[in-house]
Amino acid sequence: MLHMSSSSSRRGISWRGWLPIVLLTYAGIAVCEPPPAGYGADEPQFQTSDRCLACHNGLISPSGQDVSMGFDWRTSVMANSGIDPYWEASLRRETLDHPQSLAAIQDDCATCHMPIARYHAHLNGRTPDVFAHLPLRPALGAVREYADGVSCAVCHQITAANLGTPASYNGGFVVAGPAPGGAHPEYGPFQIDPGLMRVMRSSTSGFQPTQGDQIRSSELCATCHTLITTALGPGGRVIGSLPEQVPYQEWQHSAFYNQQSCQSCHMPAITESVPITRILGVLRDGARHHQFIGGNFLLQRMLARYDSDLELVPSAAEFSAAAGRTVAFLQSQSARIELATPALRDGRLQVDVTVENLTGHKLPTAYPSRRAWLHLTVRDRAGHTVFESGALRADGSIVGNPNDADPLRFEPHFSGIRSANQVQIYESILKDRNGAVTTGLLNAVGYLKDNRLLPRGFDKGTADPQIAVHGRALADPQFVGGQDRIRYSVAIAGGDAGVGGPYRVDAELLYQPVGYRWATNLKSYDSAAEPSRFNGYYDAMAPASAVTLARASAVSP
């Protein structure tokens, strides 16, 4: 989406070496300082992944573990960032809402979703026409640079220049241009023998492996995962901005800062010495899987289900396995729930629920379509449900959530829940220039609510405005760094006698990568192909749109 840095309403993207500076303005694209004489515009700045997989697949560890980088990567969300049906539908929605900015919106969104195609387009003095290449057919070489997503040659060509500064955010990373002789540095964590350098350089038309510590830094990830979107008014006029996703800044304000990097969680460690290339590969310590496990199991399930329809290269089984890894990761490393012993007081069953965030950023973090919520049930000794809050319907909506019933309403943060139509939902709710709820990123100028669970060590009182808590959670003394504690108070027949007791309380934290309202609001754009396709996919998959992150049970005396 359209982005701007905290200090400017335009962004510069540079290639170190010959420095063609590309400046994004809202009237279009201006290219300053052309490439040097003798550098052909048809020479690739990036290679697509097929050129990498020949040597970086088929990697087997001494214990027999498959550690192939290409197979790991190709079912990740990063690899499929341009194929993602939800992204394509959302992109179309934004261009329909803001038709005067059609070219700029496509260009800006392609910065991180289709970086190879976008940068090659700029080398030729134009902007990428994303919609002209949809629907993508990844098996066809003609659209491979559009379909390749965040590919090997993108991350591995990012230099250390400006990393960790606002200039690098919104996809403002710096890529090294060709060195004298035509060599493109491809950065990795290891020193490479000169003889092996020549093997890669000759097989990839000049891409040369180069040791660079930045490849393991959180600051490299922050270049595309810190996004400040620009709100547009009538005629494409800029009316504000929104910190759309800032997990890096959330991490900096937590106890995890400089203790665990993005890669240490999202690129699982390989615990033995392994080869990193199939040709003349030597065993190396410290390699990591290239699975880039995050929170979007829904996309991977969708790609598995519609693999044939989308003509994808990986098999449905591969995408299903990747979705399984994502769910396992979420269920083991994201959250924990604890229940105090339920007690009968004044005719009500009271129980304190503590939800702990185990991650190094807000939970959920990043794109604001994500939400987590508490589903709590109370059953009597016969197993009959006497209370339930937060049940999930088959269409992906939450019982009792006003936002799922009405796009202009939303559920506030609660410090205590006393009725079944109250639900504790950890989410961000965007507002437009009139203060109304919106799911249009380029309409959004701020937050009406942000009570996403804070990471351990996060002080909401000193948090920068970009990562601030919004709404009732700000004043809730039980909503603090690392956890939220909420008291449920349930009316019980028979008063303190508890004639149906003992009572069993079950609580689970549920999570959706795409909440019901964020999907359903696209239905009004069904006349366009991309929203129509996504809506059909989502409706069929809504029952599988959520997973349980953590659960706990307790029984009253």
Question: Short summary of the structure?
Answer:
The chain is α+β, with helices and mostly antiparallel strands and 557 residues long. The chain is built from 17 helices and 25 strands. Helix 8 (194-203) links the parallel strand 6 and strand 7.
Report on this structure.
The chain is of the alpha+beta class and 557 residues long. It folds into three domains: 281 residues, no CATH class; 38 residues, no CATH class; 222 residues, no CATH class. Strands 12, 13, 14, 17, 22 and 23 form a six-stranded mixed sheet that branches. Strands 15, 16, 18, 24 and 25 form a five-stranded antiparallel sheet that branches. It has a three-stranded antiparallel sheet with strand order 1-3-4, covered by helices on one side. Helix 3 runs antiparallel to helix 4, helix 3 crosses helix 17 and helix 4 packs across helix 5. The longest helix is centred in the middle third of the chain and has 18 residues. The N and C termini lie far apart (54 Å). The N terminus is likely disordered.
